[in-house]
Write a structure and sequence with these properties.
The chain has helices at residues 46-54, 76-82, 100-111, 116-129, 145-156, 175-192, 203-209, 229-234, 240-247, and strands spanning 6-17, 20-31, 35-39, 61-66, 69-70, 85-88, 163-167, 195-199, 212-217, 222-227. The chain has 254 residues and is an alpha/beta fold. Helix 3 (100-111) packs across helix 4, helix 4 (116-129) packs across helix 5 (145-156) and helix 6 (175-192) runs parallel beside helix 7 (203-209). The radius of gyration is 18 Å and the shape is globular.
Protein backbone atom coordinates (compact mmCIF):
# COMPACT_ATOMS: atom_id res chain seq x y z
CA UNK A 1 0.00 0.00 0.00
CA UNK A 2 1.11 3.58 -0.55
CA UNK A 3 1.00 6.77 1.48
CA UNK A 4 -2.30 8.58 0.90
CA UNK A 5 -0.35 11.72 -0.07
CA UNK A 6 1.44 9.89 -2.88
CA UNK A 7 0.07 9.93 -6.41
CA UNK A 8 2.56 7.22 -7.45
CA UNK A 9 4.54 4.67 -5.44
CA UNK A 10 7.14 2.34 -6.96
CA UNK A 11 8.27 -0.55 -4.79
CA UNK A 12 11.23 -2.86 -5.49
CA UNK A 13 10.79 -2.50 -9.26
CA UNK A 14 13.21 -4.51 -11.38
CA UNK A 15 13.18 -3.91 -15.14
CA UNK A 16 14.72 -6.44 -17.52
CA UNK A 17 14.72 -7.62 -21.12
CA UNK A 18 15.27 -11.35 -20.99
CA UNK A 19 18.52 -11.98 -19.12
CA UNK A 20 19.57 -8.33 -19.33
CA UNK A 21 18.66 -6.27 -16.26
CA UNK A 22 18.07 -2.58 -16.89
CA UNK A 23 17.41 -1.47 -13.29
CA UNK A 24 17.32 -3.32 -9.98
CA UNK A 25 14.98 -2.67 -7.04
CA UNK A 26 13.81 0.87 -7.72
CA UNK A 27 11.93 2.48 -4.82
CA UNK A 28 10.51 5.98 -5.04
CA UNK A 29 7.29 7.93 -4.71
CA UNK A 30 5.74 10.99 -6.33
CA UNK A 31 3.53 13.29 -4.29
CA UNK A 32 0.32 14.75 -5.61
CA UNK A 33 0.96 17.84 -7.82
CA UNK A 34 4.73 17.17 -7.76
CA UNK A 35 6.91 17.40 -10.85
CA UNK A 36 9.34 14.49 -10.75
CA UNK A 37 12.17 14.36 -13.28
CA UNK A 38 13.74 11.02 -14.21
CA UNK A 39 17.31 11.73 -15.26
CA UNK A 40 20.55 9.94 -16.05
CA UNK A 41 22.94 9.18 -18.89
CA UNK A 42 22.13 7.41 -22.13
CA UNK A 43 21.03 3.81 -21.74
CA UNK A 44 20.22 4.06 -18.04
CA UNK A 45 16.57 3.10 -18.47
CA UNK A 46 14.73 6.43 -18.25
CA UNK A 47 12.34 5.72 -21.11
CA UNK A 48 12.03 2.08 -20.03
CA UNK A 49 10.87 3.25 -16.61
CA UNK A 50 8.33 5.54 -18.25
CA UNK A 51 6.99 2.59 -20.26
CA UNK A 52 6.56 0.60 -17.06
CA UNK A 53 4.78 3.50 -15.38
CA UNK A 54 2.23 3.83 -18.19
CA UNK A 55 1.80 0.09 -18.68
CA UNK A 56 3.59 -0.46 -21.98
CA UNK A 57 6.04 -2.80 -20.25
CA UNK A 58 5.37 -5.41 -17.57
CA UNK A 59 7.65 -5.47 -14.52
CA UNK A 60 9.56 -8.68 -13.81
CA UNK A 61 9.65 -7.91 -10.09
CA UNK A 62 8.06 -5.20 -7.97
CA UNK A 63 4.90 -3.15 -7.77
CA UNK A 64 3.55 0.19 -8.98
CA UNK A 65 0.70 1.91 -7.14
CA UNK A 66 -1.45 4.83 -8.25
CA UNK A 67 -2.86 6.16 -5.04
CA UNK A 68 -3.71 2.97 -3.16
CA UNK A 69 -4.47 0.95 -6.29
CA UNK A 70 -1.95 -1.53 -7.62
CA UNK A 71 -1.24 -1.08 -11.33
CA UNK A 72 -1.08 -4.36 -13.24
CA UNK A 73 -1.01 -3.91 -17.03
CA UNK A 74 -3.52 -5.99 -18.93
CA UNK A 75 -6.19 -5.95 -16.25
CA UNK A 76 -9.51 -4.02 -16.42
CA UNK A 77 -8.40 -2.06 -13.35
CA UNK A 78 -5.22 -0.96 -15.14
CA UNK A 79 -7.21 0.30 -18.12
CA UNK A 80 -9.41 2.33 -15.78
CA UNK A 81 -6.34 3.81 -14.08
CA UNK A 82 -4.78 4.66 -17.46
CA UNK A 83 -7.76 6.86 -18.24
CA UNK A 84 -6.29 9.26 -15.69
CA UNK A 85 -3.04 9.54 -17.68
CA UNK A 86 -1.98 12.07 -20.26
CA UNK A 87 1.14 11.06 -22.22
CA UNK A 88 3.27 13.24 -24.48
CA UNK A 89 5.81 11.18 -26.40
CA UNK A 90 9.13 12.47 -27.69
CA UNK A 91 8.03 13.11 -31.26
CA UNK A 92 4.59 14.43 -30.37
CA UNK A 93 3.02 11.25 -31.84
CA UNK A 94 0.43 13.22 -33.78
CA UNK A 95 -1.48 11.64 -36.65
CA UNK A 96 0.09 13.31 -39.68
CA UNK A 97 -3.06 13.05 -41.83
CA UNK A 98 -5.26 14.74 -39.21
CA UNK A 99 -5.51 18.41 -38.31
CA UNK A 100 -4.66 19.58 -34.82
CA UNK A 101 -8.39 19.81 -34.03
CA UNK A 102 -8.90 16.23 -35.14
CA UNK A 103 -5.87 15.01 -33.18
CA UNK A 104 -7.04 16.62 -29.94
CA UNK A 105 -10.65 15.55 -30.51
CA UNK A 106 -9.75 11.87 -30.97
CA UNK A 107 -9.55 10.86 -27.27
CA UNK A 108 -12.70 12.86 -26.54
CA UNK A 109 -14.57 11.00 -29.27
CA UNK A 110 -13.29 7.64 -28.02
CA UNK A 111 -13.75 8.03 -24.29
CA UNK A 112 -16.53 10.55 -23.65
CA UNK A 113 -20.21 11.01 -24.49
CA UNK A 114 -19.77 14.66 -25.42
CA UNK A 115 -21.62 15.99 -28.43
CA UNK A 116 -19.75 17.23 -31.50
CA UNK A 117 -20.26 20.87 -30.50
CA UNK A 118 -19.09 20.18 -26.93
CA UNK A 119 -15.99 18.44 -28.27
CA UNK A 120 -15.22 21.44 -30.46
CA UNK A 121 -15.45 23.71 -27.41
CA UNK A 122 -13.08 21.49 -25.41
CA UNK A 123 -10.63 21.25 -28.31
CA UNK A 124 -10.59 25.03 -28.75
CA UNK A 125 -9.98 25.46 -25.02
CA UNK A 126 -7.13 22.92 -24.90
CA UNK A 127 -5.43 24.46 -27.94
CA UNK A 128 -5.70 27.89 -26.34
CA UNK A 129 -4.10 26.55 -23.13
CA UNK A 130 -0.98 25.57 -25.08
CA UNK A 131 -0.87 28.77 -27.13
CA UNK A 132 -2.26 27.31 -30.37
CA UNK A 133 -5.60 29.09 -30.62
CA UNK A 134 -6.43 29.58 -34.29
CA UNK A 135 -4.14 26.74 -35.48
CA UNK A 136 -6.65 23.92 -35.20
CA UNK A 137 -7.09 23.61 -38.96
CA UNK A 138 -3.36 23.08 -39.54
CA UNK A 139 -1.71 19.73 -40.20
CA UNK A 140 1.29 18.78 -38.00
CA UNK A 141 3.60 19.15 -41.00
CA UNK A 142 2.62 22.82 -41.24
CA UNK A 143 3.94 23.57 -37.74
CA UNK A 144 7.37 24.18 -36.26
CA UNK A 145 8.91 21.60 -33.95
CA UNK A 146 7.97 23.58 -30.86
CA UNK A 147 4.38 23.97 -32.03
CA UNK A 148 4.15 20.23 -32.70
CA UNK A 149 5.29 19.60 -29.12
CA UNK A 150 2.59 21.94 -27.82
CA UNK A 151 -0.01 20.26 -30.01
CA UNK A 152 1.01 16.93 -28.50
CA UNK A 153 0.48 18.48 -25.07
CA UNK A 154 -2.99 19.66 -26.06
CA UNK A 155 -3.95 16.12 -26.96
CA UNK A 156 -2.34 14.75 -23.78
CA UNK A 157 -4.52 17.04 -21.63
CA UNK A 158 -7.74 16.53 -23.63
CA UNK A 159 -9.29 14.34 -20.92
CA UNK A 160 -8.12 16.47 -17.95
CA UNK A 161 -5.63 13.84 -16.71
CA UNK A 162 -4.61 13.47 -13.09
CA UNK A 163 -1.09 12.47 -14.10
CA UNK A 164 0.98 13.78 -17.03
CA UNK A 165 3.95 11.92 -18.50
CA UNK A 166 6.51 13.58 -20.78
CA UNK A 167 9.25 11.74 -22.67
CA UNK A 168 12.14 14.11 -23.52
CA UNK A 169 9.80 17.06 -24.16
CA UNK A 170 12.61 19.45 -25.12
CA UNK A 171 14.44 17.09 -27.49
CA UNK A 172 15.32 18.84 -30.75
CA UNK A 173 14.16 22.28 -29.64
CA UNK A 174 16.21 25.47 -29.58
CA UNK A 175 16.85 26.95 -26.09
CA UNK A 176 14.07 29.55 -26.34
CA UNK A 177 11.45 27.02 -27.45
CA UNK A 178 12.65 24.64 -24.75
CA UNK A 179 12.25 27.33 -22.07
CA UNK A 180 8.74 28.14 -23.30
CA UNK A 181 7.83 24.46 -23.12
CA UNK A 182 9.16 24.26 -19.55
CA UNK A 183 7.00 27.24 -18.61
CA UNK A 184 4.01 25.57 -20.25
CA UNK A 185 4.53 22.37 -18.25
CA UNK A 186 4.53 24.41 -15.04
CA UNK A 187 1.39 26.26 -16.12
CA UNK A 188 -0.42 23.04 -17.01
CA UNK A 189 0.53 21.46 -13.68
CA UNK A 190 -1.02 24.43 -11.90
CA UNK A 191 -4.07 24.69 -14.16
CA UNK A 192 -4.92 20.97 -14.01
CA UNK A 193 -3.67 20.24 -10.49
CA UNK A 194 -1.84 17.32 -12.08
CA UNK A 195 1.12 15.23 -10.98
CA UNK A 196 3.89 15.29 -13.60
CA UNK A 197 6.63 12.82 -14.58
CA UNK A 198 9.28 14.11 -17.00
CA UNK A 199 12.02 12.02 -18.60
CA UNK A 200 14.84 14.34 -19.64
CA UNK A 201 18.60 14.82 -19.66
CA UNK A 202 18.31 18.57 -20.38
CA UNK A 203 19.94 20.47 -17.50
CA UNK A 204 18.04 23.71 -18.03
CA UNK A 205 14.73 21.87 -17.83
CA UNK A 206 15.78 19.85 -14.79
CA UNK A 207 16.64 22.97 -12.80
CA UNK A 208 13.66 24.94 -14.09
CA UNK A 209 10.79 22.55 -13.43
CA UNK A 210 11.78 19.67 -11.12
CA UNK A 211 10.43 19.54 -7.58
CA UNK A 212 12.53 16.39 -7.28
CA UNK A 213 14.79 14.36 -9.56
CA UNK A 214 15.56 10.63 -9.61
CA UNK A 215 19.01 9.73 -10.97
CA UNK A 216 19.32 6.33 -12.66
CA UNK A 217 22.84 4.95 -12.98
CA UNK A 218 23.63 2.63 -15.88
CA UNK A 219 26.67 1.07 -14.17
CA UNK A 220 25.18 0.09 -10.81
CA UNK A 221 21.67 -0.39 -12.30
CA UNK A 222 20.19 1.49 -9.35
CA UNK A 223 18.84 4.92 -8.47
CA UNK A 224 21.71 6.81 -6.85
CA UNK A 225 19.59 9.65 -5.45
CA UNK A 226 16.19 11.30 -5.34
CA UNK A 227 15.89 14.93 -4.32
CA UNK A 228 15.75 18.58 -5.33
CA UNK A 229 18.33 19.24 -8.08
CA UNK A 230 19.86 22.29 -6.37
CA UNK A 231 20.15 20.36 -3.10
CA UNK A 232 21.73 17.38 -4.85
CA UNK A 233 24.42 19.38 -6.58
CA UNK A 234 25.38 21.09 -3.28
CA UNK A 235 25.37 17.90 -1.20
CA UNK A 236 29.00 16.96 -0.34
CA UNK A 237 27.91 13.35 0.24
CA UNK A 238 26.30 12.89 -3.16
CA UNK A 239 27.75 10.35 -5.56
CA UNK A 240 30.31 12.05 -7.88
CA UNK A 241 28.41 10.71 -10.92
CA UNK A 242 25.38 12.74 -9.95
CA UNK A 243 27.43 15.88 -9.35
CA UNK A 244 29.18 15.53 -12.71
CA UNK A 245 25.84 15.05 -14.45
CA UNK A 246 24.29 18.11 -12.80
CA UNK A 247 27.44 20.24 -13.18
CA UNK A 248 27.49 20.20 -16.97
CA UNK A 249 27.20 23.93 -17.70
CA UNK A 250 25.97 24.49 -14.14
CA UNK A 251 27.03 28.13 -14.24
CA UNK A 252 24.20 28.71 -16.70
CA UNK A 253 21.69 27.68 -14.03
CA UNK A 254 22.97 29.79 -11.12
Amino acid sequence: MSNEQDAISVKNLTMAYGDYTVMNSLNFSVSKREIKVIMGGSGCGKSTLLKHLIGLEQADVGEIFYGEERFEPGTPEAERIRRRFGVSFQGGALWSSMTLEENVALPLEQYTDLSASEIRDVVDFKLSLVGLAGFGHRLPSELSGGMQKRAGLARAIALDPHILFFDEPSAGLDPLSSRRLDDLILELRDALGATVIVVTHELASIFAIADSALFLDVETKTALCDGKPHDLIDDPKIDPKVRRFLSRGASDND
